[in-house]
């Protein structure tokens, strides 16, 4: 199989974790006789420094021409003084919007070997933990009209608009129904329909769509309650679908509940299997360049790419089981180190996955 | 002291838990020679059933004329089919808005006797847990312009507006600074300033206000990160201040982390110490009328009223220590029952607090 992959290492630990991931990609390429044409490009803080903009045109073009995108991480305190569209994060938002990556898949699973890192009581995770949060990624309040203005008295006001069109809702909930149909046939939709109009439209639309998925059990929950229930008993859920902002919050909360945020990948997909794959962790500037960062979330993001964009399930499974095995055998980077495990550097961890 | 208290039992378990609270109020009245003039009125589902509206005018008037309001709980599946302004919750939103209760105080503390109910690992709460979430309650997306409309193609769209004026931000953050100055002098402001204009105004305004509180250490965090950090290590925080929607989510999340949502009170205050006091739990229609509900959160809400609206600290402390003692002695209602504790009914629990 021949595929073009845009590679955006980004800021902080991004380049380090990407490097190890590319080693795995080369290995897979040779082993399975694929051809991956990788094109590296800049986005985020490093692009601001080099070219004065978080997302240079040629980066966007490279992404457009690629079959999939791998992204390390963007941002850092160095660029925190910048405003709005000048910030590194803007690169993410623009790629999402321009390329139509409206479906953010955020698996939150507990690796058996990492049980002790879970902040919840053992009794709550006896049966493990395996959730999938499906977040709408190109609509809602992150992309609605926004403005700051000054009134006659010289005082400032500002607003943001949470806007949803029913078609935007329809396409994301369909993806969630499809995912649910391959899992436990249970879907939870999260909104604030007791207060928000856009949530009421969300709820109506998903209830309509549910008719096309009669074998999926659809439930609804308000965001405030969902934020609680996720802690009280995460295993009551399987697939969760929600809007952009609620999804931002819930997917991060769900990740933290696993205790393994250094290990979790994510996918942002369009309607045709094209997508951007990135670890959920940030750029961790404090440990950047020290060969300490954990490359596993980035490596698992590549596995998600194989599965979701290239239909290469065997390749994805191979990576995933290698990572699981490495963890089972007690290998850890500093962020997930605990007593009686073996601490590895970023490079050693990459090698360990390769060797497994 | 002579005070007028509007009493709104509401729906579900509201009337039961209110009844026990009023017994405590009578006791305090006699013991300390106060005069509490209580006026009971309807709001929520019960008001919809009786008068066709969730908040009858005379209820609002009673609230306006009172020095403080006690509210049990509103809502239930019976009224779930209703839309927007017809819903029971509307009573809450209208009281908040009409009476200018812009400051929602949501203490989240772990009662020592209830440690085992905490969903977090014991190691995370060794030092206990005692947070205060200060939520802006009459602005933001809950009260901004909202609309649903149909386009030419017959398709629906909807929007809600997250709007903040700098004065709205200023008054709530001041309250938070004041509270922080009586606690650990640490304040965390939560926003999404990397994406939202209203959050950027929020952040600018609180940074300006911070100059008036040079002895308070102010920090900022994005809402997605805060939702994670609260689970990872809740004790890194003390007082958290945030907007209406983020506060809705975070305050509920913080409550659940204590494992004691049946025990937590809340206050919604205006600028002059007037306020509405209610438990954070819902109306629990499944156990309503069964003498099973836990009255302690409602009782503790009355204690908050004594402290925040009436400056009756001694009375508040008396109630709070009675509740703590009852818990220490192993008395529990069904919701918080565990092995080796004594299960009480709602009435027995009220009596137990009185006797202590
Ligand atoms: C960086 C930020 C704009 C982004 C978001 O909120 O979407 C991030 O938090 C994420 O979840 O990918
Ligand atoms: C019932 C609802 C409107 C309300 C809110 O979201 O404000 C509730 O969740 C709360 O937190 O008091």
TrEMBL record, chains A, B:
It catalyses: (2R,3S)-3-isopropylmalate + NAD(+) = 4-methyl-2-oxopentanoate + CO2 + NADH. This is 3-isopropylmalate dehydrogenase. SUPFAM superfamilies: Isocitrate/Isopropylmalate dehydrogenase-like. GO terms for cellular component: cytosol. Catalyzes the oxidation of 3-carboxy-2-hydroxy-4-methylpentanoate (3-isopropylmalate) to 3-carboxy-4-methyl-2-oxopentanoate. The product decarboxylates to 4-methyl-2 oxopentanoate. Pfam families: Iso_dh. The keyword NAD applies. Its EC number is 1.1.1.85. Binds 1 Mg(2+) or Mn(2+) ion per subunit. Its cofactor is Mg(2+); Mn(2+). Pathway: Amino-acid biosynthesis; L-leucine biosynthesis; L-leucine from 3-methyl-2-oxobutanoate: step 3/4. Substrate binds at residues 96, 106, 135, 224. Residues 4-353 form the Isopropylmalate dehydrogenase-like domain. The gene is leuB. NAD(+) binds at residues 76-89, 282-294. PROSITE patterns: IDH_IMDH (PS00470). The record marks 142, 192 as: Important for catalysis. Keywords: Amino-acid biosynthesis, Branched-chain amino acid biosynthesis, Cytoplasm, Leucine biosynthesis, Magnesium, Manganese, Metal-binding, NAD, Oxidoreductase. Coiled coil: none annotated. Mg(2+) binds at residues 224, 248, 252. Gene3D superfamilies: Isopropylmalate Dehydrogenase. It comes from the Bacteria. InterPro entries: IsoCit/isopropylmalate_DH_CS (IPR019818), IsoPropMal-DH-like_dom (IPR024084), Isopropylmalate_DH (IPR004429). It comes from Tindallia californiensis.
């Amino acid at each position: 199989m021949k595929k073009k992959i845009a590679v955006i290492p980004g800021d902080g630990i991004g380049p380090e974790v990407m490097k190890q991931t590319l080693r795995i990609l080369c290995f897979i390429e040779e082993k399975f006789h694929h051809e991956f044409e990788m094109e590296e490009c800049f986005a985020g803080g490093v692009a601001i420094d080099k070219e004065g903009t978080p997302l240079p045109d040629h980066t966007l073009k490279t992404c457009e021409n690629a079959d999939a995108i791998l992204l390390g991480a963007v941002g850092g305190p160095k660029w925190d003084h910048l405003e709005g569209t000048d910030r590194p994060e803007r690169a993410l938002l623009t790629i999402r919007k321009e390329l139509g990556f409206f479906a953010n898949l955020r698996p939150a699973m507990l690796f058996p070997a990492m049980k002790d890192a879970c902040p919840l009581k053992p009794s709550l995770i006896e049966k493990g933990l395996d959730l999938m949060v499906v977040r709408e990624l190109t609509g809602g309040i992150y992309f609605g009209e926004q403005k700051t203005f000054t009134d006659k008295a010289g005082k400032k006001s500002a607003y943001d608009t949470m806007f949803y069109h029913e078609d935007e809702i329809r396409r994301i909930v369909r993806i969630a129904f499809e995912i649910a149909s391959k899992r436990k046939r249970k879907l939870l939709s999260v909104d604030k329909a007791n207060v928000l109009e856009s949530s009421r439209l969300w709820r109506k639309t998903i209830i309509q769509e549910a008719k096309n998925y009669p074998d999926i059990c659809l439930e609804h929950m308000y965001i405030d309650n969902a934020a609680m229930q996720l802690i009280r008993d995460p295993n009551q859920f399987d697939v969760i679908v929600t809007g952009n902002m609620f999804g931002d919050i819930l997917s991060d909360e769900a990740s933290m509940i696993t205790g393994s945020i250094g290990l979790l990948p994510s996918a942002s997909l369009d309607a045709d299997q094209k997508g951007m794959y990135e670890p959920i962790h940030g750029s961790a500037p404090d440990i950047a360049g020290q060969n300490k960062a954990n490359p596993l979330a980035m490596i698992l993001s590549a596995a998600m790419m194989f599965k979701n964009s290239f239909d290469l399930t065997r390749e994805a499974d191979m990576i995933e089981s290698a990572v699981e095995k490495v963890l089972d055998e007690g290998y850890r980077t500093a962020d997930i180190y605990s007593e009686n495990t073996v601490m590895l550097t970023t490079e050693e961890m990459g090698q360990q996955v390769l060797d497994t």
